[in-house]
Design goal:
- This protein has 579 residues and is an alpha/beta fold.
- It folds into two domains: 317 residues, ABC transporter transmembrane region fold, CATH 1.20.1560.10; 237 residues, P-loop containing nucleotide triphosphate hydrolases (Rossmann fold).
- It has 19 helices and twelve strands.
- The protein has a six-stranded mixed β-sheet with strand order 6-9-10-3-11-12.
- α1 packs across α9 and α3 packs antiparallel against α5.
- The chain is elongated and about 115 Å long.
Length: 579
């Protein structure tokens, strides 16, 4: 609990520090509203004792007018506190979402996957919303509750010292109830946030694989897995809800018992002449305010455990220091080519075996190097080392003779174009997607890049550069998305092209044509391609064969065909030759 409480305290302190003016405004508005609220029972006592009992109607009217004015001040102060508190909390939520998003972009692929996409979405949206609501509660309701409770106790002492123990004991009992509630519900709140992560993960996984699930008729199996996550979250929510539902009746029992004791003791004091009817009425009013203050604390108590859990998860991401450290900003080698892998090894967290182990080879400037291998052979991991999506656990990778760790990250990535197998596109137009590679590119340059990627014809047929691109480019086929992604890479005119299976959705003829066009356009650039199509690999200057994360051999097509058994087996498998 201490860890999460500290995390929420950090968020709250940061919110106050960044918006000190709003916070001071909230506090002032609440103090004004509190003073106005505390004055009213005393005024009511004066009306009863000096006006009603004495039959002085003008006195009742004068004090009644003052009570009305005080009520207006109370209303205005309360509304101002709510308005300013809302502005403060929504501003904090906006900043937190922005900070989480920007910071997640600095994390390495390993760190991001450790958190998980589903969990990152929950933290960015739902956890931030919980933190926002809790900061609002703390700055308005939770801050008002103690002020009203303490103020009511002090004012009750002015009314009658003999009656004050009743209200003090009531306040202490209610505070104990709220404290026990927070201690019990906080661990459940932490578990419920993790259960939401699990449910989101299950839902995203199953929705993304809907076609496969239906094709294999496994709807019942995945439904059962989803139901298991759903039932766990439901059970935790019921336990939290039961505790929350139990809190109010317990507080009301304490309040009602206190009211009974107040009336019994007050009747005896009135009979003995130590208390007036107006004073008893005022004392009862202050008791109601104590109950109201504790009720406000209850509302905060219900939110704080969730806030502690959510704040802990937010801070966990914000405190994560990227393990991909950039070199000095002024370190700008003249070229990112050639590329050299020197004993590079990569092991993913939790994996028993290394994804890449002790790989060494060189990719010369102006040449095309194709890395071939079967599924899970380590091709994608090798290429991910170049833009430093992952870093080697051992060995190094050099670009232009300088270790990638010594490059400025910004400068290194500015010298490279990376193309993934998915051909990732974003919502917008064809032109806006291409200009992600070069924001200042002219329309003519866009068409030239599309021609290199053999994409100009289908773009022209679908309406030109203004053609809409749906979410993730789903209104284009896999091969079309890959060609658009390659055109975007060409626009950058990089020194190094890193293409991770970016031809996999194209037929062999188109893939070979696109690679040939790319070689002509980028004759002075180093091109590194991960591929499974041997047809395309045949034209490469150098082929690196990997198997089980290890480099088997390097050479050209004919040399490997004669001397490398794994490569020859791949060629025979794809050409249909059976020995």
């Amino acid at each position: 609990m201490g860890r999460f409480g500290g995390a929420f305290g950090r968020l709250l302190a940061s919110a106050i520090a960044q918006r000190r003016g709003l916070f001071i405004g909230v506090m002032l508005a609440q103090v004004v509203a509190m003073i106005a609220g505390l004055v009213q029972p005393t005024l009511n006592s004066l009306i009863i004792d000096n006006g009603v009992v004495a039959g002085d109607i003008p006195y009742v009217e004068r004090v009644g007018a003052v009570m009305f004015a005080v009520a207006v001040v109370n209303f205005v102060g309360s509304m101002a506190a709510v308005a300013l508190g809302s502005r403060l909390s929504t501003g904090v939520a906006r900043d937190l979402r922005s900070r989480l998003y920007r910071h997640s972009m600095t994390l390495s692929a390993n760190q991001f996957h450790r958190v998980g996409t589903a969990s990152m979405m929950t933290r960015t949206m739902q956890d931030v919303t919980v933190a926002q609501q809790s900061i609002f509660m703390v700055n308005t309701v939770a801050a008002t509750g103690p002020l009203i409770t303490i103020g009511a106790v002090i004012m009750s002492l002015r009314m009658s010292v003999r009656m004050s123990p009743v209200i003090v004991v009531a306040a202490i009992l209610m505070a104990i109830v709220v404290g026990v509630f927070i201690a019990r519900i906080t661990p459940l709140a932490v578990q419920s946030r993790r259960a939401v992560d699990g449910l989101n993960h299950s839902l995203r996984e199953q929705l993304s694989g809907t076609q496969v699930i239906r094709a294999f008729g496994r709807e019942r199996l995945v439904s059962a897995r989803f139901a298991e996550s759903n039932d766990r979250l439901t059970a935790l929510s019921r336990r939290v809800g039961a505790l929350q539902a139990l809190l109010l009746p317990v507080v009301l029992v304490v309040a009602n018992l206190t009211m009974v004791v107040t009336n019994l003791l007050g009747a005896k004091l009135i009979d003995s002449g130590h208390l007036t009817i107006g004073e008893l009425t005022a004392f009862s009013g202050y008791l109601v305010q104590v109950v109201g203050g504790v009720t406000m604390l209850m509302a905060a108590a219900a939110a704080i455990p969730q806030a502690q859990a959510s704040a802990g998860r937010i801070v966990e991401v914000l405190d994560a220091t990227t393990d991909t450290v950039s070199g000095p900003a002024g370190n700008r080698p003249t070229s990112a080519a050639p590329i050299e892998f020197v004993g590079a090894s990569v092991r993913y967290p939790g994996a028993e075996l290394a994804a890449v182990s002790d790989v060494s080879f060189r990719c010369a400037t102006g040449e095309v190097t194709v890395v071939v291998g079967g599924t899970a052979s380590g091709k994608s991991t090798l290429l991910a080392l170049l833009p430093r999506l992952v870093d080697p656990a051992a060995g190094m990778v050099r670009a232009g003779g300088v270790s990638l760790r010594d490059w400025s990250m910004t400068d290194l990535r500015a010298r490279m174009s990376y193309v993934s197998q998915e051909g990732s596109l974003v919502s917008g137009s064809v032109a806006s997607n291409l200009r992600l590679g070069s924001p200042d590119a002219s329309d003519d340059e866009l068409w030239e890049a599309l021609a290199v990627a053999e994409a100009a014809d289908f773009v022209r047929e679908r309406g030109g550069l203004t053609t809409d691109v749906g979410q993730s480019g789903r209104n284009f086929s896999g091969g079309q998305r890959q060609r658009l992604a390659l055109a975007r890479a060409v626009l950058r005119r990089p020194q190094v092209y890193v293409i991770d299976d970016g031809f996999s959705a194209m037929d062999p003829r188109t893939a070979t044509t696109v690679l040939t066009n790319l070689r002509k356009t980028a004759a002075k650039s180093t091109i590194i391609v991960a591929a499974q199509q041997i047809t395309m690999a045949r034209t490469a200057d150098r082929i690196a064969v990997v198997d089980g994360g290890r480099l088997v051999a390097t050479g050209d097509h004919l040399w490997l065909l004669d001397r490398c058994i794994p490569y020859r087996e791949m060629v025979e498998a794809q050409s249909g030759v059976v020995r």
